[in-house]
# Entry
Amino acid sequence: MEEKKYIIEIATSDFTTTQSAVEGGADRIELCANLAEGGTTPPYGIIKQCRNAFNVDIYPIIRPRGGDFLYTDDEFNIMIEDIKVCKKLNCDGIVIGLLNSDGSIDTKRTSYLVDIAYPKGVTFHRAFDRCKDPFEALEQLIEIGCERILTSGQQPSVVDGVDLVTELNKIAADRTIIMPGSGVRKENIKMLVEKTGCTEFHSSLRGKTASKMNFIHPGFKDSAESYMNNSIEAEEVRALRNSLI
# Structure
C-alpha cells in the first residue's frame, strides 16, 4: 500500500499535543479541548497559535459542552460564533454534530452551520454514532454538504463496528468520506483499510506524562489532575502511519 494514499487525522487537546502529532506526521488535526469528554471547542488562543505554527489542516471541533448532542438555542448561537472565529483564523474546516431528541440528525441546524462555515470543510463527528438510522443520516449529511463523517460504526470501538463502517463506505462511494475512528491503532489500522476500503483514519493516541513541577503538594501527590498532563508521542503517530506500508 502506498502511504501517500491515506490521510491520518489526530485529535489533540492543546498546543503541545498538536505539536507532537504534527511532528509524527499527522495530515490533519482535530483540535479539541477536554478530550476526556469527547472534545469541546478549544479556546481562541490555542486555535490561533496552532494555526500560526503548523502547516497542516486544522479542524477545530465546535462543541460548546460535553454530554449529548441536543443543543439549546443559546448553545447553537455559541456554535455559530465559534465557527466565525475559526474562519477568521483561517482554519481549514470545522467539526460538528447535532441531533434531534428523537435520535435523528438535526438537519436544519446542521445545514445552517455548513452554510456559515463555507467555503471551509465540515466533518460530522461521532454524534453520527448516536443517531437512530445511520443510512438515513448518511444521505441527509451528503445532501447537506458535509465532506466527511467520523464514525465507529455505532459502537464504542470501530473494531466492533467495522461491518457497518464498511457498508457505509460502500454506499457513500465518492459522495462523502467515511472516516473510521475510536480505537484506531497501529495494530488494527491495516485491517481497517483492507476491510472497509476507507482512506482516512482518525485517532487520538492519548497518553499521560508526568508534570515537570518540582514541588508536589503533599495533599495532592496522588492527584492525576494536578500532576499529570495530556500527551501524544510523535513516534506513536509515526508508527500508526508506518503500519499502512
Summary: Strands lie at 7-12, 28-31, 57-60, 93-96, 121-124, 148-151, 177-180, 200-203, 207-210, 228-231. The chain has a mean pLDDT of 96. The longest strand covers residues 7-12.
